[in-house]
Design brief:
The protein has 34 helices and two strands. By secondary structure, the chain is mainly α.
Length: about 725
């Protein structure tokens, strides 16, 4: 008997070929795009957890929020991709246009986005075929092709950070497809008591869990499958509700975990009152419907925030569009027995529900709407569109459908070009939304990296002009004025930043440093204390501790040791937390220097020990401890201290030279001479080498060939954290 040959009919491959073309024609060019200075930096190429070792730190994202998000599966996928493409031997991928260097080339990230989008397209085809039946199989291909090529999908596919929406959307499509496969087959009247396919239901549940872990906004999936089961399959709502109940429980659990784990970043805008939110939400639905029907003038940021909407006349009319669309869908269902249009509309709205502004979210301060939010919602749109063309004769609609997909693909291909680099993206935003304070701020950041100082001032000034209360804009504008040696304007903008956000750490540090530089220590402490009283948390406490420590250093330099000690003791009153230990160590070191200067050498040693134990990265403390031990005749102990930190400061000349002094005092002359030579070699490579310090080392070498040396005086008090 001859073996049976498995044959695949060419007709079955035609839909796949059509979808490959519909996906690749507009999006194949994404493989050559680079990263953007638009969240790609914090999420991928400058993510500190990836730079330390992508796979090593995956666990962090499952137990912590990062950048005010809890999307552990998405970060895990990024980590795997980063591990896969990481360049060997410390090599970096460079992009001079975006001013970035990273060991993770972006090509694989973009190809992963494209592959994920194609998987979603295939799943949409399966969903539409299940919804429309055999008679609508070509309409399903048309709907999937529209989903593949639609310009609203460009942001999610062309942007590396868009993977969170792509991954969540793809897993959601998988969950919906498997859920529909789990339903009993046949006419509704004959299968009401039929059992679901447990295996398909289990697969759907796994997909749903994955979607929740990719992006918690997918909590709406239980409602979507409920709508599809009841309206499209005509199954009893009680059975559908019972089947969706486990998913509701999972959604509630994911919401609770997200609420607990995320760091809870504060809104930088005033959320609208509850009674305005339904109108804002309906306006957002209108926006997405209009862009789905007429996908032109699309961009990364629209500025359609609640505060902007209030001043627009159409704010009171746009809500009518989704209301009328929903009413038409309801009428078609009740009068014409055509539930698919209502199902498509409800899926569209429900998929958008978490980002409509009924519950405020951080990005809403910039814009309630964004193209990436519509990725899953487009399933509802193409479902209704496919149902519309399904009953038409192929002769009438096939050519028109192909032409429509071609037009969408051309528009998408053009839209992808706007995402080729950061400059192109920002230029597109200003073309669509010239009032974007955020883009002017980001352009100021880019101009700073390129040292185009006139552009820096212009963009930061425009940013705070468009949003007078923008704290980051005021802080960076203050930095620019300080660079221009205009302390009055710098102080004004620092104060404006703190007036908008009292806990703004950078502005608080910068104004305290500016005032301390002018000798206005009491004003600096007053400002830091006021911010600490208004928002009492680690960062304001740290800055207040720095200001007090800096004031103590000022008194020490004036030889007013009593006042210096008072301020140092005030600085030491703050909690010993991870973020304040650096300041505490600096203050302990300063007190140790002061005690040594007034003759209390043993007390000084005690404080140096405390500084070393509190924060080992304080370079002055181990150096001062070693020198003071040498001065106290305890050279052997000093050598042990220096030896403990030798690896950490192996290239630091002002650590190696005191080490040489300690070795000489301990009678270890050959080691001392070698260490002095190391200090000179390190000094040659030191970026801020002081010729006087080189002379000091050479003089010591000449005077101490075979003799013991005199230890250096401990370093003077440190002024605290630097400005800017």
């Amino acid at each position: 008997m001859e073996a049976e040959v498995l044959t695949i009919k060419p007709a079955r491959l035609i839909p796949i070929a059509i979808l490959i073309v519909a996906t690749c024609v507009p999006f194949w060019q994404v493989r050559s795009l680079d990263y953007l200075m638009w969240d790609d930096d914090v999420n991928v190429y400058e993510n500190p957890h990836f730079l330390e070792g992508p796979l090593k730190n995956i666990g962090f994202f499952w137990t912590n929020g990062y950048e005010d998000l809890w999307i552990p599966l998405t970060y895990s996928v990024w980590a795997v991709l980063a591990e896969w493409v990481e360049l060997p031997g410390g090599q970096v991928h460079t992009d001079t246009a975006n001013l970035l260097e990273t060991p993770f080339p972006p090509r694989l990230f973009h190809l992963a986005n494209l592959g994920m989008h194609f998987c979603a397209v295939l799943l949409v085809l399966g969903i539409l075929r299940s919804a429309l039946g055999d008679r609508g199989r070509w309409a399903a291909v048309f709907g999937a092709a529209v989903f593949a090529a639609h310009p609203l999908q460009v942001e999610a596919v062309a942007w590396v950070t868009g993977m969170k929406d792509l991954l969540a959307g793809t897993l959601s499509m998988g969950a919906i497809w498997a859920y529909l496969r789990s339903l009993p087959q046949g006419e509704p009247g004959s299968v009401e008591s039929g059992r679901r396919n447990a295996r398909c239901y289990g697969v759907a549940t796994v997909f749903f869990i994955g979607a929740l872990l990719a992006k918690p906004a997918t909590v709406v999936l239980p409602g979507i499958v409920f709508i599809l089961e009841v309206l499209l399959r005509g199954r009893p709502w009680k059975g559908a509700l019972l089947a969706a109940t486990p998913w509701v429980a999972l959604a509630m659990a994911a919401t609770a975990v997200t609420w607990l784990v995320q760091s809870g970043g504060q809104f930088k805008f005033l959320p609208p009152p509850w009674w305005q939110r339904p109108v804002i939400a309906l306006d957002a639905v209108y926006f997405y419907l209009s862009k789905a029907v007429l996908p032109i003038r699309l961009g990364p940021e629209y500025g359609r925030s609640p505060s902007w909407l209030e001043g627009q006349w159409f704010y009171y009319a746009t809500w009518l569009v989704p209301v009328i669309a929903g009413a038409v869908g309801w009428w078609l269902w009740r009068k014409r027995r055509a539930p698919v249009y209502l199902a498509g509309f409800l899926v569209f709205v429900l998929a958008l529900l978490p980002v409509l502004g009924l519950i405020p979210f951080a990005y809403q301060g910039i814009s309630t709407v964004a193209d990436r939010y519509a990725y899953l919602a487009m399933l509802g749109f193409v479902l209704a569109l496919a149902a519309l063309v399904s009953p038409l004769s192929r002769k009438h609609w096939r050519l028109a459908a192909a032409a429509l997909v071609m037009v969408l693909a051309i528009l998408s291909a053009r839209q992808v070009r706007f995402w080729q680099d950061t400059d192109s993206v920002f230029a597109r935003v200003l073309e669509i939304n010239p009032r974007s304070w955020l883009i002017h701020y980001n352009l100021g950041v880019i101009a700073t990296g390129r040292e185009r100082w006139d552009e820096v001032l212009a963009h930061y000034s425009k940013s705070v002009e468009l949003w007078p209360g923008y704290p980051d804009g005021h802080n960076n504008l203050g930095r620019e004025y300080r660079r221009r040696k205009n302390p009055e304007r710098a102080e004004y903008h620092y104060r404006m930043a703190l007036a908008s956000e009292p806990g703004h750490e950078a502005a608080l540090i910068n104004i305290c440093a500016l005032l301390a530089q002018q000798g206005r220590h009491q004003e600096a402490i007053h400002i830091a204390k006021d911010c600490y009283d208004r928002i009492s948390y680690v960062r304001t406490a740290r800055t207040l501790a720095v200001a007090l420590s800096r004031y103590g250093a000022h008194f020490f330099n004036q030889k007013d040791y009593v006042s210096a000690m008072v301020q140092f003791e005030n600085s030491l009153q703050f909690n010993d937390t991870e973020e304040t230990r650096e300041v505490l160590a600096r203050t302990y070191n300063n007190v140790g220097v002061m005690q040594t200067q007034i003759g209390e050498r043993n007390k000084g040693i005690d404080f140096f020990v405390k500084a070393v134990e509190t924060h080992p990265d304080n370079r002055e403390a181990p150096k001062n401890l070693g020198l003071t031990l040498v001065e106290a005749g305890r050279a052997a102990e000093a050598v042990e201290v220096f030896r403990k930190f030798e690896d950490r400061y192996r290239d630091v000349p002002d650590f190696l030279f005191p080490f040489a002094v300690g070795l000489a005092e301990a009678g270890r002359k050959e080691e001392s001479a070698a260490m002095a030579r190391r200090a000179l070699e390190a000094l040659d490579a030191w970026p801020t080498a002081d010729p006087a310090y080189r002379k000091k080392i050479l003089d010591w070498q000449r005077e101490n060939t075979g003799a013991t040396g005199v230890p250096e005086t401990p370093a003077p008090p440190e002024g605290g954290a630097g400005a800017d």
